[in-house]
Amino acid sequence: MWQFFADNPWFTLFVVIAAGSLFGMVRFGPVKLGAAGVLFIGLLLGALDPDIGPAVPAGLAVFGLALYVYTVGLEAGPAFFRELRPQLGVMIGAVVALVVTAVVVGVLGNKVFGIPGSYLAGGYAGIGTTTPGLAAAQASSAQPTEPATGYAIGYPLAVVLTILFVSAIAAVRAWPSRRDPGTGLPDRLITRTVTVDRAQKWGEVPGVADGRLLASVHQAVGASPRVARGIGTLAPGDRVVLVGGPEAVAEGVAVLGQEDAEHLLDRRDTVDYRRILLTNPDLAGRTVGELALADGYGAMATRVRRGDQDLLAHDDLVLQLDDRVRVVMPRARTAEVTAYLGDTEAKVSEVSAVSMGLGLAAGFLIGIPKITLGATTLSLGTAAGPLVMAMVLGRLRRTGPLVWVLPTRANLTLRQIGLLVFLACVGLTSGYAFRRDAFSVFGLKLLLVLLVSAVLSYALMVLVARLLGQSRPRTMGLLAGYVGNPAITAYANSRVSDSRVNTGYATLFALAILVKIVCIQLIVGL
Fold first, then answer.
1. What's the rounded Cα separation, in Å, for the pair 150 and 153?
2. What are the tens digits of pLDDT across the range 460-491?
């Protein structure tokens, strides 16, 4: 009966993706497995017959992995380089914690329990929930099915333990954060119209100088509303629309006068506003200031919607394709501004085959060189090569006419496809070996090693953050990035509303993947 799956590998592959995605939606307490559900369904199906795994099309897993790590690198690169200097101490501490964990896994697993390095490498990737790490372990192992057994044991263990750690951190109220007072970034943006009751220089209003407060529309006494460009001194009776976080806007209202019952943005006869989708490739990678909206159209950008986040549109904010830019402009020039920015839905999912092809080719190229250390061979390989190159290209954003970054929706779509294909292939090819090894005394020994190592690893990361004076929200994000699981980030965000959770995750996510890949290749040498 099961031979049908072996004879029809493409059918089997997409059955696993569909069934695994459904399984990933099932909630186990506060979390869901997400894409990892595909791995477990693949293991289940692959365990039914020894012929199913070998029938999986060769090279398909590498293709899926390359798409995944490349798109991750494009998104994570800018955050990594931006946080490199201010968070260097945390990054070094995370690297030390990962190396110590690898040593414990190797010594406890291999020297005490006699577990082969390939299983331990997969387990190390599992407690780090790093898919590229699993690929590196398989590429370095003589038996590629063995790392998948360790990964499948370690992955659910990591999710459960990290959730417990995040819950414990969230419950601690007296958490000193001497070096992490906060980003100043609001969780949401609001607009309010205020009537000025005393003369006030705009640049002296709290929040203006440090970029927490913007003005979008200004109406002087006896004049029509206009786009708020070049405001000098506000006079009594003037009205102005403030844009910023709730606290910054409240401060501005308190200093300037009082909130007006009539909102100036409700009047759109002379000044109009709308969100415009940035799809003009010539503008991708440019800053808001470089758009020159004021000089060209008498307009100004006030907000940028990127994914689920609203950002104040400062002149130095770098834009990317698929951003939704909120622009305030003279009503007569709405069509011109819209055409300039693009606003073409059809281009949202378009991908430059030239830039993506060159980027991936360069990534595979830097993954080829190998360094031999005793019995261990180290290389970036197909897992880390495209990731490193994408991080660099994501930081550059564009080179002349080549735009390296992808529209947000296209990036997420390609990432999901790559991850699902890779996990399905790994599950199917490793299922029969998992059936043989996981449910045995050997499997229990491996589980014990990974349990001890995971608890030690996460505790070390929390200790590093605490000693370096990081805040409670950022520590939760750092732990999520250290483990490398977005489900943990989502759970942390459900426990505390603070932008430092996401910035902490971005700080360590890509770095942790690279360090884990190197450690995994060393563990395989055992």
1. 5
2. 999 999 998 888 888 998 998 899 877 677 67
